[in-house]
Structure formats: structure tokens, C-alpha cells
Design goal:
353 residues, alpha/beta, VC0802-like, Rossmann fold, 7-stranded mixed sheet, 10 helices, 14 strands, binds S-adenosylmethionine
Length: 353
Amino acid sequence: MNGLLCYCRAGFEPDLAAELGDRAAEAGLHGHARTARGDGYVLFVGDEALSTHLPWRTLVFARQSLRLLAELRGLDPRDRIAPILAALDAARPVTAPVYGTVWVEHPDSDAGKPLSGLARSFGNALRPALRKRGLLAVADDPQATRLHVCFVAGDHAFLAEADPAASAPWPLGVPRLKLHHDAPSRSALKLEEAVLSLLDGGQRRDGLRPGMTAADLGAAPGGWTWVLARHGLVVTAIDNGPLRQHVLDTGRVEHLRADGFRWQPPRPLDWMVCDMVEQPARVARRMGDWLREGWCRQTIFNLKLPMKKRWLETQRSLEAFAEAATVPLAVRARQLYHDREEITVHARRTGDD
Ligand SMILES: C[S@@+](CC[C@H](N)C(=O)[O-])C[C@H]1O[C@@H](n2cnc3c(N)ncnc32)[C@H](O)[C@@H]1O
């Protein structure tokens, strides 16, 4: 069975299916989505090359993207291991290297969450069986291909695999972040996740250094400003609403009551972040203005999406952003775990490198 198994936020399956369909067609590949609203995953069945041409990093609505190997239905609860070993034997060339790790998962959905206990205990039983069969490394090897078993019901599972370097490094595609007790709002988690999942290690190290400067458009009550200040950045926070006092007390934050669509910095900044609730295309165009004018080198911003046709709106907004920016950019957009009806975009001017 060829294709992709992708996880997503429950309710966003049609958006992910539309995205995969368009991306496959652009790459000249055949594929069709099998999904139902609320499942928390999309199966995209088609050409073998799909996983190479549609890697996780380039997808907006996929929390994870895996190369599909097999679908197992009617699993006997007394022995789910034998059919999995048989399916792996059938799906893999004899010369295939052993897996480095195995993750037993379930979709992040109403039907999937009750399967977490099964996933945990089954993983403990499966590991020794895979090792005995010579399919799994004796000690975990996080660089080698990872095997995924995804239960969608007690008797129904998918087998898939992923290159750790080209897939989400978190089980279920969900980074586990805890809200800090000092954080002024839950939104702080969105920016923390964006930094973790949209920037690579080098960009985090070199791109967010103490003493750098930033603007936060639509900053109140101060969650994103607080995250930037904790990284040591000096932040101008723009909002007509109030910021929490302890954010101002960091000594790194200036609060200006101004319109985030009109304000511009007196001198170029390293960063601009924006969480204003507005029409996505309007936000996207303004973000493009900032990059074109060189008012910031990098930006992380949210695009609030309407209820319907969210993939179409995503495409339109990202096009409007690129058109307004005109300068060469590296752009990554994703629906983060902490995003609800929205996506988060990181963009960096590449001409300055
Ligand atoms: C979702 S909240 C931001 C939450 C914030 N990122 C945090 O982490 O606490 C959106 C904010 O955008 C502000 N906002 C909306 N339109 C604005 C505008 N034109 N100029 C400045 N702020 C605006 C609102 O006042 C509101 O405080």
C-alpha cells in the first residue's frame, strides 16, 4: 500500500486532504484522500514518490507525515503481533535496514484518545517481538528509520515508517509544552511552539539572542512579548489594550498604545511578531510590507482562518504575503498544536544572509 498517513487537528481533515491533493497534483503525482471529518488523520493513497515530494516540513495542516506501509483490519485482540510481523515482511524488501525505534500511536481525536492505554501496553509487547525478528535495533537508534503503528480502533491499525530527519520529532506530531506559571496568557505556548517547530536548532541559537530587538503587534495581555523578553530580546509591544505588569517589569518591554497596522519602527528590528485578530489577507499583506521595507529581518505571525475553505484561504494569504514582500524569503507555515482556527507562519529575508 503506497501513500501517506498524516495526522492533523480533528476537524481539519478536509483542509489537509485539499492541501495534499493540490500538492500532489503540482508534483505530477497521483493520489486520493481517504478520510472522515473528526478522524484526526488523513490517508493519502497513491504514488510511491509522495513521501519524498511532500515532506512533513512543507505541509501546513499535517502534524505528522509518514510513509504508509499497510492497513490491518480485523486484528485479533489475543494476537495483534503476528499479523504486524507478517505485514512488515510483505511490505519491506529483505535488504531493508532494521528500524531504529518504534512508536505506537493513535489519532488525537475523540475516537483515538481512548486508545492511548492500548498503544502504551502494546508498544511494550511489540518491541521485544520486533527485536527477536531482527526488525528493530537492539538499542534505540533515533537517527535510523522509525516504525509507526497507528491504532484507529482496537482491531484496526496502520503501519507506516518515517525518516526521523524528515518528520515531526514528537509522538502524534505533538510537542509537549507546559504553560509556565508566570505566562500572561495561554497564547505564550503558541509562540514557544512556533519557535520550537518552525525554526531549526541553528536558527533558534543564532536568531534569538539576548539584546536583539523585536516588535509585537497585538501584544496584550503580553504572552508573546513575555516569551521574547525571556529570550533576552528588547520588545516594543503594540496594543491599545493593557499588558500585565510583570511583563513590563522585566525592564525589556516598552508598551505603545498604537494601531498595529499603521505603526512602523523608527529603526530596523531583528524580529516582528503579530497575533492580531483580523482578516488573514490583510494581516499577510502588512507582514509583507514589513519585510519589503526591511523593518524586520524575521517574523512569526498568526493567520486566523475562516470556518470554510481554510486551505484555499491559506494559499491566498501566503500569495498576498509574498506579493507584498517582493524580496526573497524563506517561509514555513504550519497549523501548530496550540493553534485552533489559525495557522502560524515564520518568514525570514534570505537576501540579507
Ligand atoms: C489574540 S490577542 C493577542 C494575544 C497575545 N499574543 C498574547 O500572547 O497575550 C489579539 C490582540 O490584538 C489586538 N489588536 C487587534 N487589532 C489591533 C490593531 N489594529 N492594533 C493593535 N492591536 C490590535 C487586540 O487588542 C488583542 O489584544
